[in-house]
Every structure is written in C-alpha cells, then in structure tokens.
Design goal:
The protein is 37% helix and 16% strand. By secondary structure, it is an alpha/beta fold. Keywords: Aminoacyl-tRNA synthetase, ATP-binding, Ligase, Metal-binding, Nucleotide-binding, Protein biosynthesis, Zinc.
C-alpha cells in the first residue's frame, strides 16, 4: 500500500449538496494538499430508499464545479453489502450482536438517558428476550435491527484510544481516550440493509487505506464508537481532524432534511465557484 496520505469526502446521495458540504469538501481537499496526500470521493448510498443515482451524479457535478477532482473509480457503498454482511456475521459469531424489535416510540418511552447526539439511549430491552420469543418474532417477520452488545464489546476491546490533529491535519497529533460506553447498544444492521453508517464507514476507511479523516464537529462524538468497531474488527484507525460547521441564520447546522439552500440553487442565483470559496474562507 502507498505511503501517501489518503483522505476522503463521503456524502450520501439523498439530496443536493449545500454550503456545509462544500465547506467539508474544500477543507478535505485543502488538507490533502497540505500533507501531500490525495482526496477520494466515496458515495455512501446504503439507504436504498432515500439515495438516488441522480443525486450521486449531482454530487460529482457540484464538486467538479467547485474545481475539485478525485481518482476513479468512485467507491459506492451499495456495491459492498456482502462485505458489510460478512463483517457483521463475524461479530455475531462472537456473540456481540442481538436482535432488537423495539420501535423508536417504544425506545423513547423506555429510555432514561440520552446518547451524545441527544437521542434516547437504548435501554437494552430486547437483550432479555428468550430464544423462543426471538425465533417467533423473526418467523413472524417483525421489523428487526441488530445491536452491538456494547458492554461485552468494550470488555473484549480493552482501553481504546484514537489520534487527533487539531485544528487541521498539519497540527501535532494528540492521543485521546475513547468512551464508546456513552453510545450504548448501537444498531449495526437493519432488516433489508446489512449495515449501518457506523459499520460501513470504518470498514471502507480501512479498505481504502484512509490515513486521515476530516469530519464536522457534529461527528466528533461518534468517533468514540468507531474506534471500538475498529478494534473489534482489526481495522486501522486513522488520524482525525474535526472542522467547524456552517450554520444558518438561526444558528442551526445546514441540513438536507431542513432543506438548506443547495449549491445548485446558489449557482442558479448567480453564484460562481469562486464566490462559494470566498464565502467559506477558501479564496
């Protein structure tokens, strides 16, 4: 494997890119240039109901409009479902996964704590189901997801650490202690989809030889859990850098789900790629 630093920008094609995505992409490509590395484009399209080929094509068009380029071929996660399923099966064979049939409303009603993202922390309800009840519910075709037995996983992995370079990839690397216990029993698989974001991202970062991960500060806490998965699966752990977020007039993070104005809309309104770069501090 090449000793050249490898970074990646990995959007999901479930909508059009906005200024927050543009900032992350420009940050990543600049970081790669600063350390003599290469920036990869990865399409994280594991959500087969929301991700569309036309959005994937639009992502590439928008990034090219910004003046960015990347090596081909581009990895599409939807082509790697068998690999994710195999890794999940390895965890299951070690008694590290269990089926969960709880709905979001049931979890919200039963939870007594919250995870680092502010979502209800799963209280482990289905860990206490009997084998007979599990078999019956699977036979019935109840919606199911598979969660990591986090306490057992953490005990097997032992103390966990990860490397961080802040505020950018050229800064000295510091070592931080990971606290995956804050996340509880995270979902790694869902019925009809053999992976989750957490599982596929660590598998593909390792497979692509990614040495540096640049991600928004909203993903900083998730790194604790990713380090746990890397340890369990024997995967490499990159150096992490967490960049600032682009906020709207209300002080909230730009988001596709909140219909933040897209790069395409800005372009139609007369913005140039240089305008976007200047606006985001990459002139």
């Amino acid at each position: 494997m090449s000793s050249q630093p490898i970074l990646r920008f990995a959007p999901s094609p479930n909508g059009h890119l906005h200024l927050g995505h543009a900032y992350s992409a420009l940050f990543t490509w600049r970081a790669a240039a600063e350390i003599g590395g290469v920036a990869l484009l990865r399409i994280e399209d594991t959500d087969v109901t929301r991700c569309k080929p036309e959005f994937a094509q639009a992502i590439m068009e928008d990034l090219a409009w910004l003046g960015l380029s990347w090596p081909e071929p581009v990895l599409h996660q939807s082509s790697r479902f068998p690999i994710y399923a195999q890794k999940a099966a390895e965890l299951a064979a070690r008694d590290l996964l269990y089926p969960c049939f709880c709905s979001r409303s049931e979890i919200a009603a039963a939870a007594t704590a919250r995870d680092p993202d502010g979502a209800p922390l799963y209280p482990g309800t289905c860990r206490h189901l009997s084998e007979a009840e599990i078999a019956e519910r699977l036979k019935r075709g109840d919606p199911v997801q598979y969660r990591l037995k986090s306490d057992r996983a953490i005990a097997l992995a032992g103390p966990l650490y990860f490397r961080v370079a802040q505020p950018d990839v050229t800064a000295p690397v510091e070592t931080r202690v990971a606290h995956p216990e804050l996340w509880g029993d995270v979902v790694l698989q869902r019925k009809g989809t053999p992976t989750s974001y957490h599982l596929s991202v660590v598998i593909d970062d390792d497979a692509q030889g990614v040495t540096h991960v640049t991600r928004g500060r909203d993903m900083e806490a998730a790194t604790d859990f990713h380090v746990l998965l890397q340890a369990l699966l024997g995967l490499a752990s990159p150096i992490y850098t967490f960049h600032e977020l682009i906020l709207d007039a209300d002080g909230k993070k730009l988001s596709k789900s909140r219909e933040s104005e897209s790069l395409r809309a800005l372009r139609a309104a007369g913005w140039s790629a240089d305008d976007v770069r200047r606006h985001l501090g990459f002139a």
